[in-house]
From TrEMBL:
<keyword id="KW-0347">Helicase</keyword>
<dbReference type="GO" id="GO:0009378">
    <property type="term" value="F:four-way junction helicase activity"/>
</dbReference>
<dbReference type="GO" id="GO:0043590">
    <property type="term" value="C:bacterial nucleoid"/>
</dbReference>
<feature type="domain" description="Helicase C-terminal">
    <location>
        <begin position="223"/>
        <end position="373"/>
    </location>
</feature>
<dbReference type="GO" id="GO:0043138">
    <property type="term" value="F:3'-5' DNA helicase activity"/>
</dbReference>
<keyword id="KW-0067">ATP-binding</keyword>
<dbReference type="InterPro" id="IPR001650">
    <property type="entry name" value="Helicase_C-like"/>
</dbReference>
<feature type="domain" description="Helicase ATP-binding">
    <location>
        <begin position="27"/>
        <end position="194"/>
    </location>
</feature>
<dbReference type="Pfam" id="PF00270">
    <property type="entry name" value="DEAD"/>
</dbReference>
<dbReference type="InterPro" id="IPR002464">
    <property type="entry name" value="DNA/RNA_helicase_DEAH_CS"/>
</dbReference>
<dbReference type="GO" id="GO:0016787">
    <property type="term" value="F:hydrolase activity"/>
</dbReference>
<dbReference type="GO" id="GO:0005524">
    <property type="term" value="F:ATP binding"/>
</dbReference>
<dbReference type="InterPro" id="IPR004589">
    <property type="entry name" value="DNA_helicase_ATP-dep_RecQ"/>
</dbReference>
<dbReference type="InterPro" id="IPR014001">
    <property type="entry name" value="Helicase_ATP-bd"/>
</dbReference>
<protein>
    <submittedName>
        <fullName>RecQ family ATP-dependent DNA helicase</fullName>
        <ecNumber>3.6.4.12</ecNumber>
    </submittedName>
</protein>
<dbReference type="GO" id="GO:0003677">
    <property type="term" value="F:DNA binding"/>
</dbReference>
<dbReference type="GO" id="GO:0006310">
    <property type="term" value="P:DNA recombination"/>
</dbReference>
Length: 488
């Protein structure tokens, strides 16, 4: 199929005039039977890629996705687009329906699985009986991720792919520096040469990048209230602590009268879903969230993403700020940093290992899971899959070293004087083609002067009386350390 035919299908079947960067190259690779790793920024249309292939190639498209809400959203979108035979196989499905579905896989065209579900032996055996046109691993960076919230079943996907005789595979992610890309390809059992990597720049020229150093928590809160009030629009504020996310949401809504809600994994699934929907439908202005919020959020008018706490890595930061300005309009990513903030991601990244004796006793069924401590489940995963205690210790020691390095890189971003955009590009091994006039600010930058000028890479909302540029200007007057407008 040549490019002209592919463009025709895009117009006729999907109603789009042109492919977005990265889409066509990925589709062509997959249609020719090549595996692909597509590293495309949030909002660039990754879903279209597998829908397109699913439309052309006969057989089942299997999508592995880490979040129920993400799967549900994709299922709804595919059904709305007129596709039939779309379903998700998840813990939400009652056992009888699940059984029924898995016994009739050939009735489906798109099936979504969690990593835990697809690594089940019975599911794999059933999948072996059907013709699979494509396996999609969404949010593929999770394969290479780490931390107490890591989903170890991602590591078993390699065996699943082998059992399924390595069907054509599409790995999708918004953020993967070369090191992570190589790691995830290897962990999924592919040779480097067997995967075509399609990479678009992580740079988002319409997002103004800012860091503000503050002296204390109190100053952070004061600044936050001022920013949110002055800024208006929809925004996400990220916290590393569930408690603080909840407390700050309450406080902000009292202080500002705005509609603010918390979102984190400690809130039950139904409420989380409700909050997400309220935000999507503009019934909430601000979300105070932990990193649990955002994957797959397809809201295009998020005007700012503020980090109250430093995230655990530059990859995580880029992923989270990528939720701002998806409509191409000017948006803001602001990191508030106060000395010592790096301790929190370090603390959260730490996994306390029990002694080798305890691990051995667990392996010999002499001790319960709980005896493995706070990170019991992740440690048990390795022990249950045949790892020896000394191998587990070695792995965790290496991971801890990597965690410290990642937090160190984030700390450099927060505290050094260099250009934010350049630092992110360097981290991802990219050359910056150009820098927008509204580039970044680390307290002292001359952004005010630049804001007077028409800006490249910036679309201004001309219908809006409060022009977006003047809002940004206000905002940074307010956010600047030396500002004398703090009480205005
Ligand atoms: P991602 O998964 O990369 O974050 P999505 O797949 O959610 O992005 O797509 C973001 C939006 O872009 C969706 O509303 C989708 O319909 C739209 N989109 C996808 N491809 C195109 C295209 N070629 N032209 C215009 N819009 C597109």
């Amino acid at each position: 199929m040549d490019d002209r035919e592919l463009h025709q299908i895009l117009k006729k079947e999907f109603g789009y005039q042109r492919f977005r960067p990265g889409q066509l190259a990925t589709i062509k690779a997959l249609l020719s039977g090549q595996n692909a790793l597509s590293i495309l920024p949030t909002g660039s249309g990754k879903t279209l890629i597998y829908q397109f292939v699913g439309r052309i190639k006969p057989g089942l498209v299997v999508v592995v996705s880490p979040l129920l809400s993400l799967m549900q959203d994709q299922v709804n979108r595919l059904r709305l687009a007129g596709n039939s035979g779309v379903a998700m196989v998840s813990s939400l499905l009652d056992p009888v329906s699940r059984h029924e579905l898995i016994n009739h896989l050939d009735h489906y065209h798109y099936l979504f699985f969690s990593p835990e579900m697809i690594t089940n032996d019975w599911v794999v055996n059933q999948l072996r009986r059907v013709n699979i046109s494509l396996v999609v691993i969404d949010e593929a960076h999770c394969v290479s991720a780490w931390g107490p919230d890591f989903r170890p079943h991602y590591l078993l996907l390699r065996q699943v792919m082998l059992a399924l005789h390595q069907p054509t595979t599409l790995m999708l992610t918004a953020t993967a520096p070369p090191r992570v890309a190589a790691d995830l390809v290897a962990k999924l059992g592919f040779a480097d040469a067997a995967v075509q990597i399609i990479r678009q720049s992580v740079d988002r020229p319409n997002i103004f990048l800012a860091v503000r150093q503050v002296a204390s928590e109190q100053e952070k809160l004061t600044k936050l209230r001022q920013l949110v009030t002055r800024y208006g629009g929809r925004g996400i504020i990220y916290f590393s602590s569930r408690k603080l996310a909840t407390k700050t949401a309450e406080w902000l809504s009292q202080e500002t009268g705005m509609s603010v809600a918390p979102y984190h994994a400690g809130i039950d699934a139904v409420d989380r879903y409700r909050i997400q929907q309220q935000f999507m439908n503009d019934r909430l202005q601000v979300i105070c969230a932990t990193s649990a919020f955002g994957m797959g959020i397809d809201k295009d008018d998020v005007r700012y993403v503020i980090h109250y706490h430093m995230p655990k890595s530059i990859e995580a930061y880029v992923q989270e700020i990528g939720r701002a300005g998806r409509n191409g309009q000017a948006a803001l990513a602001l990191l508030l940093y106060s000395p010592g903030d790096e301790q929190l991601p370090l603390m959260l990244g730490q996994v306390k290992l029990p002694s080798d004796d305890v691990m051995t006793a667990y392996q010999q069924h002499q001790l319960e899971l709980a005896s493995l401590g706070d990170s019991a489940e992740i440690i048990a995963f390795y022990l249950d899959h045949g790892w020896q205690p000394n191998q587990v210790r070695h792995l965790f020691t290496n991971r801890w070293r990597a965690t410290k390095q990642q937090v160190g890189q984030m700390l450099t971003y927060a505290t050094s004087s260099g250009c934010c955009r350049q630092q992110i590009a360097d981290h991802f091994g990219e050359q910056l083609a150009s820098r927008p006039l509204l580039c970044c600010s680390k307290d002292q930058a001359d952004w005010q002067k630049k804001l007077q000028l028409p800006s490249a890479g910036m679309q201004v909302d001309h219908d809006n009386k409060f022009s977006w540029q003047s809002r940004l200007r206000d905002l940074f007057n307010l956010a600047s350390k030396s500002s004398d407008h703090l009480d205005s």
